[in-house]
Amino acid sequence: MNEAKGFTLLEILVALAITAIVLTSTYGVFASLSSAKEELEGDGEIYHQARVLFDRMGREIRSTYFRPTARDTLFRGGEGDILGQDYLELTTTITSPTLPRASGISQVRYEIRLNPDDREAPPILVRMEESLLPGVNAEGMEHRLAAGISRFGVRFFDGLEWRDEWNATEGGGLPQMVELFLEMEAAGRPLTFLTAIEIPRIEP
């Protein structure tokens, strides 16, 4: 007569230990994949934001309107007075549809400011716009474009070298290209973005 055989206590403990190791490893893999997925999604949002910012600024820079003899037209940039960050200011034929009269020429300025809602948070990129159309008596508009920007930089190419400062009203005219630099915070680590925009030559 055969006796029924069962598992010994040692065999059960070994099986439980192996099962625990397998489950822990599986959980670790899924946790790593979930963390990587969240990081990629966060980075994707920041890449999209940078692309939108560069596209908007690029269209305005390519549509720069500056004439030495035209009153109020300008193109300048470099280190500003706020946080030691750069700024960019220009007159452009690209105007926001929310202006009282969304056509003609606008004066636009980009600069970095402290976040008024949280002084400990990374700064924000601000865009200010004012219509230069005759007869338009309206205050300029100001928009917060993006938060979490730790650095905004501009440089200007004069055909021979890159310069950190530019002022077209001082007789230098417009640069050939403008370089834009953004450093944005992503989960405590910086992501940097760089692009160069050519200003079309307008024949007199």
Automatic annotation (TrEMBL):
The lineage of its organism: Bacteria, Pseudomonadati, Thermodesulfobacteriota, Desulfuromonadia, Desulfuromonadales. NCBIfam families: IV_pilin_GFxxxE. PANTHER family: TYPE II SECRETION SYSTEM PROTEIN J, TYPE II SECRETION SYSTEM PROTEIN J-RELATED. It comes from the Bacteria. It is found in: Cell inner membrane. It is a single-pass membrane protein. One of its GO terms (biological process) is protein secretion by the type II secretion system. Belongs to the GSP J family. The chain crosses the membrane at residues 12-30. GO terms for cellular component: plasma membrane; type II protein secretion system complex. Keywords: Cell inner membrane, Cell membrane, Membrane, Methylation, Transmembrane, Transmembrane helix. This is Type II secretion system protein J. It holds the Pfam family N_methyl.
